[in-house]
Predict the structure of Quinoprotein dehydrogenase-associated SoxYZ-like carrier.
Amino acid sequence: MRLWLTLTAALLAAPAMAQDNALQPSPTWEDLRGAVMDLDSDPPQDATVLDLDAPTRAHDAAIVPIRLTQAADAPAIDALTLVIDENPAPVAAEYAFGPALMPLDFEVRVRVDSYSDVRAIATQADGTQVMAGRFVKAAGGCSAPAGKDMAATKATMGQMRWRSEVQDGAEIGTLMIRHPNFSGLQRDQVTLLNIPAHFIDRLDVRQGDALLFSMAAGISVSEDPVFRFRYQPDGQPINIRVEDTDGNVWTESFPPGERTVNKS
């Protein structure tokens, strides 16, 4: 567990270093914008309302860290769609956020299949939209081999770990979920046969009954996904529900204030 937490911290710290990889002109996005996102034009970009950090060149295309942030006085965001233009399934995930996550500081790891803009389109409480993004140099993330063999995958699937800590006066939660998130583009390293797509498609994280965030995801969220976020604690337990495309459901509850806990 210690190694996992150490690697997680290192990976999720990486986006803060990337500041020079602005969005690039993208013919793919020109098609996606209307056909997939139902937008007539690009939403405005305003880094104080929403910013997206990602590495200019990914160390590992299968676990590219993405960090979404807002300035302290930014208007609340209700929903956000994460898009990786050049991925086989460009919509990586759709999120809903509760008030306890505002202003937003939220991190996730994704797969990037080829050099691509990674963009977030957020909807504010008044219905207006804003966009942020970075251009990421990475390739092969969606077909990269899984990090564990199939036996280990089955033995640990659905396990969750939760850590809560105070950093600079803010409560930071880190949720880790064991799941291969098979994309359908990978091969079993023993049989060399394609592994069918099998991934987490629904995630609901609550503090008591109040929503912290929910996610509807596709194949682009990384293996063993990690979510790190600032939130306002209210003394209630952290309740998590995970569903995957094979119909598996896992639930877990972590007591308030619990730190560095391994729940299996």
